[in-house]
Amino acid sequence: MDAINPSVKLTELERIDRLRLIRSDNVGPRTFRSLVDHFGTARAALERLPDLARRGGAPRSARICSLDEARAELAASLKFGIAWLAPGEDGYPARLATLDDAPPLLAVRGDGATLMRPMIAIVGSRNASGAGLKFAGQLARELGEAGFIIISGLARGVDQAAHRASVASGTIAVLAGGHDCIYPPEHGDLLAAILDHQGAAISEMPLGHEPRARDFPRRNRLISGAALGVVVVEAAHRSGSLITARMAAEQGREVFAVPGSPLDPRAAGANDLIKQGATLVTEASDIINAVQPILERPMMRPVSEPDSEPFESDPQGHDREQITGLLGPAPVTIDDLVRMSGASPAIVRTVLLELELAGKLERHGGGLVSLL
Questions:
Q1: CB 126 within 8 A of CB 157
Q2: 123 and 179 assigned to the same domain
Q3: What is the pLDDT of residues 33-79, one digit of tens each?
Q4: Where are the alpha helices (DSSP H) in 198-300?
Q5: N or C: which end of the chain has fewer CB within 10 A?
């Protein structure tokens, strides 16, 4: 494991190259990291994109974000008071930077110092009960008084109750869309209050991006990833809050849940989390006591398994056919592909990268991949 470097500072050209790479077709955060780890810089990776996509069987050239497009996006963001920050730069949440799928550039608006303080996420039902809203606010207020920043998703219900109760002490809104596409729209005043009181808002989406259903789980990984732990106040079965809790567990974050009545379906998900081992919360001290030992440990960045092996410069055709033949719509682990194909890890990773850049591969959590 590598200690996090807090003194990164990109040049303007490096920032533009990073933005161009992450805005190019079929390049997500994990792919971005694999490309940069292998080729050394975002610019070098950009030069190799067409060839890698062609080798993956792309029917036509994938769109690569142009220099003018990247410069225009950065200029528009600057007018909006947004800074695009890379992991390790001041203002980029340190714990978020430890994720394998951390945004290569994060759009930050507000007080960067707030983003460097320890955070607790509070999430829950959009149609929360009065008791749930009151308790979410009470937790947020008491955690704020104890020195923690509250992070949440600016949604209706529990999210907004937690934000409003912690405006004075510091709170962070994580947006599913661009900074100019607030959802829900009626929370524009809440976001303004957050920014006016040394809070912050973050997003990985460009200006003008209207949030879609698939953007919210993606947003949720930022909420949990930036925090020490996630508190679920109320959540029905199959709710977005449970997705956030699952992501928190996968990221090695603490998971907390507030118990509720077995007769209230809004509490069913939180009660299930407690059965599965989440820490039961009835007061703020339950959370504070659990995260205090974590604060005393140095933060480390894990070296992800997919990037621990080199890539193969040009796999043979039969290797591509064999590995592609083992893939299907059901997710399979990369280790299983290595074992079943008999190819080296380097060859398997290279073929998967080619397929992904050709728009044919989907990556899932836990090192799982499948064909689209």
A1: yes
A2: yes
A3: 989 988 999 999 999 999 999 988 888 778 999 999 999 999 999 99
A4: 215-226, 240-250, 268-275, 284-295
A5: N
330 and 234 both lie in a single domain:
no
Residues 200 and 290 both lie in one domain: yes
CA 179 to chain centre: 16
List, in sequence order, every residue forming a beta bridge with 119; answer none if it has no partner.
Answer: 149
* Domain with 260 in it: 109-301
Residue 299: partners with Cβ closer than 8 Å, 6 or more residues away: 3, 4, 94, 95, 98
On whether both 159 and 285 belong to a single domain, the answer is yes
Token pair for 56: 């993956």
Cβ-proximal residues to 157 (8 Å cutoff; 6+ apart), any chain: 124, 125, 126, 127, 128, 132, 133, 234
- Does 209 have pLDDT greater than 90? yes
What angle do helix axes 345-357 and 29-39 make, rounded to 10 degrees? 130
What CATH number does the domain containing 133 carry?
3.40.50.450
Where is 257: in which H helix or E strand?
strand 254-257
Total number of domains in the chain: 3
Token look-up 């110092």 returns 113
